[in-house]
UniProtKB/TrEMBL annotation:
Residues 12-63, 76-106 form the DUF883 domain. The chain crosses the membrane at residues 85-104. This is DUF883 family protein. Keywords: Coiled coil, Membrane, Transmembrane, Transmembrane helix. It comes from Pseudomonas putida (Arthrobacter siderocapsulatus). Residues 11-38 form a coiled coil. It comes from the Bacteria. InterPro entries: DUF883_C, DUF883_N.
Amino acid sequence: MANSALRKASLQSMEAEIESLLKSLESLKDDASDESRRTLKVLKGNAENALRHSRHLLSDAYEEVKVKTRETGIATRDYAQEHPWTTAGVAVGALGLLAAYLMCRRGD
């Protein structure tokens, strides 16, 4: 799951860089000659393709995280329904740890 978050952050960073590149290309286009404009069109097309690709990858990563989260939630619910006493014991233990932590911090 951390890997998906890292991948998402990386894709967002790539997307921001590509959008920045597109803005720079637009500003340079006004000052360029005809030959340069043709080259810039090719570069812009490549940058737009890369942006579309990164958005597609980001969408895939989001879908993957969404499916995994849903599966984990269902598995947790099913386990809690099948083992209510175990679930209650874990919940009470977690509350005890939280209370102990808060009491220790209060003493500092």
